[in-house]
Specification:
mainly alpha, 75% helix
């Protein structure tokens, strides 16, 4: 059975977007590691911890997780249970994938909508150490779920084109 979740792209626009996303992930991860390392050194060598380092590292981690999840969805790298696909006849495989995509569309749409509400509710609430708005920190929720929604729509269209 071939894996139709992995889609090959020849478009240079897609290549640039993917490369930019991977670079953002790298920068967030590097920043998180460097900030935590500097805080450990400051705490144990100089007896003076950086108060906002833990909060900045947490923000980097939150954004890293959601951007990474979006990239993983695009690349077909999320864990999936394909036991059902192995048990059904090949002619039903496409329809099970379509049903799965419709369920995912509903989940991502609801998550994006409630993510927008959460962002609006938290926009005036500052984080204690950095003063960064929790609305800005949490804005990755609707952004990532909206992007996931678009990815699933595109994959569904490709699924129908590959009859």
């Amino acid at each position: 059975m071939k894996d139709s979740n992995k889609v090959k792209h020849k478009c240079t626009f897609y290549t640039h977007i993917k490369l930019a996303t991977e670079n953002i992930l790298f920068i967030l991860f590097a920043a998180m590691v460097i900030i935590v390392f500097i805080n450990v050194v400051a705490r144990y060598i100089f007896n003076n911890a950086i108060t906002s380092s833990e909060e900045i590292a947490r923000i980097c981690f939150i954004w890293l997780v959601f951007i990474g999840a979006t990239l993983a969805l695009e690349e077909g790298e999320h864990l999936g249970i394909d036991l059902l696909l192995r048990l059904i006849p090949d002619r039903w495989e496409k329809w099970v994938k379509v049903l799965s995509n419709f369920l995912l569309l509903g989940i991502t749409a609801l998550s994006a909508i409630y993510g927008i509400q959460l962002t609006k509710n938290n926009i005036s609430w500052p984080a204690p150490a950095t003063g960064i708005s929790y609305g800005i920190i949490g804005s990755i929720l609707p952004i990532s779920f909206f992007l996931m929604f678009l990815i699933i729509v595109r994959k569904s269209i490709l699924l129908f084109k590959n009859q």
